[in-house]
Amino acid sequence: MILWISFTYTGLKMAPTKTPKTPAKTPAKTASKVKLSTGLSTDVIHQGDCIEIMKSLPKGSVDLVFADPPYNLQLGGDLHRPNNSLVDACDDHWDQFDSLKEYDQFTREWLTAARDALKDDGAIWVIGSYHNIFRLGYILQDLGFWILNDIVWRKANPMPNFRGRRFTNAHETMIWASKSKDSKYRFNYDSMKALNEDLQMRSDWYLPLCTGGERLKDDDGQKAHPTQKPESLLYRVLMASTNPGDVVLDPFFGTGTTGAVAKKLDRRYIGIERETSYIKVAEDRLKKIARLGDGEILHTPAKREEPRIPFGWLIERGLLKPGAVLTDSKQLHEAKVSADGNLIAKGQAGQHRGSIHRVGAALQGAPSCNGWTYWHIKQGKTMVPIDSLRQQIRDEGRGSLQ
Ligand SMILES: C[S@@+](CC[C@H](N)C(=O)[O-])C[C@H]1O[C@@H](n2cnc3c(N)ncnc32)[C@H](O)[C@@H]1O
């Protein structure tokens, strides 16, 4: 259901509100609103100015902010393609500011309100182009946010530079920042690695623009919103930095892309948008989405959240026998398993006795070593890492150990 609150913002001189391209209609009501024990209502769209509405939210109540604010594109006149057709650029009234100073003041105010709404361990993502991202980054740092990464969204299908006077503008930048330097922000490292076929996820993301069936249309078949973001972008953002049940606030909701992905991934959302026509589009979109409620599908257990299994347990349970010989995957080094769970090995500098990690590091002359992935045991004709034996114990004990 839409929480139908209308706020009028008077603290800043905004460009006059013109009628949006799509005619405004009264938004349909849905019955999905959820009130949390903290008193915060989620799965709602608030209509009005985001600064005023964010100020009205309980302080320290949301886990993540995703913000796609006005770009302040400062377009000077119409842009035509070589065949003289008009380019559908973002020239909407909500993207117009009288000066950079006014844009900066607006940015400072909404970022301050967003920071207040965030939990101490919360984080923010802001997306922008070269027109505004540097200003956003500067102000974020001024306000005490702690920048964690800047992500380059490389567009698979960017719009060409029709005038041929500059490079094709083929990317946007997202800044990911925690509320403060001390925030214990969430990063689902293992989910990102899993999404990327077991390779660390990099900070350059190659994703297409929102086109085809995903692009929402108005009653005249025109784009319902000039800057609708692709769901794939939000999928990665939310998978990386939230857990099921977390509350995600989007102060520039537009067509509700953040809400749509949040709902698909069983996160809670709070959207804020000024324009009635966009709210209507977002409402219709969100109504059609079913919540995925299966924790096993949605949750990637982080390796460091898994129960600790000491190496000695493998011996106690008979998965490895005292005297068994372990080698690295290339069979350059070997070590014998002792009855107390230490390894014994002969290296160039003499005998080593210690944990799987310490002996692995000593034999390689390395400062550290993950013994679980370094040491292997022969099973039949294949070598398997001892980590797979640890996993057997975790699988047996799932439920009782957690
Ligand atoms: C760049 S668009 C966001 C598009 C959105 N991410 C999507 O995928 O559809 C920015 C949106 O912010 C809204 N907006 C601009 N200023 C606002 C304000 N002060 N308060 C609330 N909404 C605002 C605009 O109407 C516009 O829909």
List low-pLDDT spans. 1-31
Radius of gyration: 26 Å
Number of helices: 12
Largest sheet: 8 strands, mixed
What is the straight-line distance between the termini? 37 Å
Helix fraction bin: 25-40%
Fraction in beta strands: 15-25%
Mean pLDDT: 88
- List SSEs in N-to-C order: EEEHEHEHEEHEHEHEHHHEEEEHHEEH
- Say which molecules are bound, naming each kind only once: S-adenosylmethionine
Classification by helices and strands: alpha/beta
Q: Can you count the beta strands?
A: 16
Oligomer: single chain
Q: Report the principal-axis shape.
A: elongated
What would you note in describing this structure?
This protein is α/β, with parallel strands linked by helices and 402 residues long. The protein has helices spanning 50-56, 100-117, 133-142, 189-195, 231-241, 257-264, 276-287, 295-298, 312-316, 356-364, 371-374, 387-397; strands at residues 34-35, 41-42, 44-47, 62-67, 118-128, 146-155, 171-178, 204-207, 247-250, 268-273, 325-327, 334-337, 343-347, 350-354, 376-379, 382-385. The strands form four sheets. An eight-stranded mixed β-sheet has the order 3-10-9-4-5-7-6-8, sandwiched between helices. Strands 11-12-13-14 form a four-stranded antiparallel β-sheet, covered by helices on one side. A two-stranded antiparallel sheet has the order 1-2. Helix 1 (50-56) runs parallel beside helix 2, helix 2 (100-117) packs across helix 3 and helix 5 crosses helix 6 (257-264). The longest helix has 18 residues, at 100-117. Residues 49-50, 68, 70, 94, 225, 227-229, 252, 254-255, 257, 272-275, 278 line the site of S-adenosylmethionine (SAM).
